[in-house]
Amino acid sequence: MSRWARKTDSNQSDIIKALESVGCTVLDLSRVGQGCPDILVGRADRCYLLEIKSPKGKLNKAQRKFRDTWRGSFAVVRSGQQALEAVGVINV
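Predicted structure:
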């Protein structure tokens, strides 16, 4: 696998569709690497970084370091509903 051919989780397209269906903009960052989250989501003049994981997926070392040092919004999501919650469309 080339350094730019990053594997995406099978639920990524469903999560992006859920976000876009409520008017969010989504930028795929999965090719950035170095622990950078999978997507950047814009909603209501705010930006959210979301790391997409499969139901049993875990953060790798680089992703944990990014999460622990990032001073902005960061969430791990496993479904469209979790993504909508993370960006404030659904209140928990």
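Summary: The beta strands are 25-28, 39-43, 46-52, 74-77.
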